[in-house]
């Protein structure tokens, strides 16, 4: 099934790049892919959301869950870049500190 987003993982750089649009229809698949990233990477992770045009509350919840899962295993995630829309959402919901912003 195709969704309006794309996730690229560079295990060498520990970098996850998410682009496109994330809403409730694509969130279950996003959660699954993020869980796989925990298993296939080591150490702390970085997320680049600079090409993510839209993120709704379900997508944000998936990112928060991802952060909490990593914290439980003494790892962290940092958002290194975010589009204007995503940055506004992170600011309004006061979760930037969860992602090292």
What does this structure look like?
With 101 residues, this protein is α/β, with parallel strands linked by helices. Helix content is 39%, strand content 29%. Strands 1, 2, 3, 4 and 5 form a 5-stranded mixed beta sheet that branches. β2 (15-22), α1 (27-40) and β3 form a beta-alpha-beta unit. The protein is globular.
Report the sheet-strand fraction: 25-35%
Query: What is the subunit arrangement here?
Result: single chain
Largest sheet: 5 strands, mixed
Taking all residues together, what is the mean pLDDT? 91
The total of helices stands at 3
Shape: globular
Structural class: alpha/beta
Which stretches of 5+ consecutive residues score pLDDT under 50?
none
Please tell me how large the radius of gyration is.
Answer: 12 Å
Through-space gap between termini: 33 Å
Helix content: 25-40%
Helix-strand topology string: EEHEEHEH
The total count of strands amounts to: 5
Secondary-structure map:
Elements lengths: L4 E6 L4 E8 L4 H14 L4 E5 L2 E4 L1 H16 L4 E6 L1 H9 L9
Parallel strand pairs: 2-3, 2-4, 3-5
Antiparallel strand pairs: 1-2
Report a brief summary of the structure:
With 101 residues, this protein is α/β, with parallel strands linked by helices. Helices cover 39% and strands 29% of the residues. Strands 1, 2, 3, 4 and 5 form a five-stranded mixed β-sheet that branches.
Which short descriptors sum up this protein?
39% helix; alpha/beta; 101 residues; five-stranded mixed β-sheet; globular
């Amino acid at each position: 099934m195709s969704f309006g987003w794309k996730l690229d993982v560079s295990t060498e750089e520990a970098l996850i790049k998410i682009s496109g649009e994330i809403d409730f229809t694509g969130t279950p698949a996003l959660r699954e892919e993020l869980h796989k990233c925990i298993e296939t990477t080591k150490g702390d992770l970085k997320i680049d959301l600079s090409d993510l045009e839209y993120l709704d509350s379900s997508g944000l919840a998936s990112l928060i869950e991802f952060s909490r899962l990593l914290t439980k295993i003494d790892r962290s995630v940092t958002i290194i870049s975010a589009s204007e829309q995503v940055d506004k959402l992170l600011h309004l919901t006061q979760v930037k500190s969860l992602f090292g912003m």
